[in-house]
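Quick check before the chapter quiz. The format below is the same one you will see on the exam, so make sure you can read both the input and the output lines.
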Amino acid sequence: MSAHQTSAEPGQSPIKAAPIKAVLWDFGGVILTSPFEAFRRYEEARGLPRDFLRGVNAVNPHTNAWARFERGEVDAASFGDLFAAEAKALGHDVHGSEVLKLVSGEIRPRMVAALKSVKTRFKIACLTNNMPLGHGPAMAVSPEKAAAVAEVMRLFDIVVESSKVGVRKPEPAFYQRACELLDIQPFEAVFLDDLGINLKPAAAMGMQTIKVEDPDKALADLSRIIGMEFA
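Here is the expected output.
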């Protein structure tokens, strides 16, 4: 399938769409392994309910401690205390400083290889909700990991960081900022993210979207949209 088509239901003709000019990538959970895996290991070790940490972040998702830290409105110390209060309100004692140790995942080599291939034909951008924490956009916890992540980051034409621009996914202004920097329209982009809440506004703006749960399936979906094969 070419980049001028999207998939259709069996028995139907392919749906015509605008040519794709750019592929936009979330970082944590897409290029890196998901922090949710580390969250669950922590929950199991502490005897917390499964997905408790995600549940804390789901309450008042645009104004809670997590959202404010990702927009750079509070520092790490304030985030720790604010998160602790939110967790306490839901019945468990978890300080935010413990959660911050879990947010930086591991690089997925196959995603990086795909990124390099896509770069030969399309503009590429990183759209990341991050925090003023650690080393670099991926909040790496060590200089060694920061160096490895920096090598990946240099592949992108642009990197949009929530903690620097003051808006975050899923706020539409975040996606619009990326499109303006790439000089594209939303309908000329494909966006990969591991969270449905971040994909919905992108889709509403006209982007084609891919939810990354299984990386291999996500790359197969991307292959169908842009007409590239990935090893």
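If your answer matched, good. The first strand starts at residue 5 and ends at 6.
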